Amino acid sequence: MTYHHILAAYDGSKAAKKALEHAVAIASIGPNTKLTVAHVLYRPVFDIGSFAYGSSEEYMKQVEQFETSIMEHAREIIAPIPYSRIVVLTGNPVPAILDYAKDNHCDLIVMGSRGLGAIQEWMLGSVSHHVVQKAQVPVLVVK
């Protein structure tokens, strides 16, 4: 089966890399298949009573450097696909991925089974699990 537009969620983890490689393989089957790699910036602010806590400026610089490096790595992986691009989304990963897929008529979502956010997964549940449960299109979860 060929797809028109594949969305691959990518956070730089080993599982996300394997998922992106699968997405490239699937996209290469169809001559005009689009592949979009989505990285979601999620910067939670913790609210404790009337006190809100964000991340330090130094930490945010390190995060930005890390995100730049994983996007460069993703660019290398998708280079063989002529209709490919990278987008950076913001907010909670689950609705960000689902909204992008719906708004851009993606007909397949590909993602890794485990990402980099162990604390977030413990608190909120697996992103891949929630995407599978709520997606309107097929979702390929790669281990």
Automatic annotation (TrEMBL):
Residues 3-143 form the UspA domain. InterPro entries: Rossmann-like_a/b/a_fold (IPR014729), Universal_stress_UspA (IPR006015), UspA (IPR006016). CDD domains: USP-like (cd00293). Pfam families: Usp (PF00582). It comes from the Bacteria. Belongs to the universal stress protein A family. This is Universal stress protein. It comes from Cohnella pontilimi.
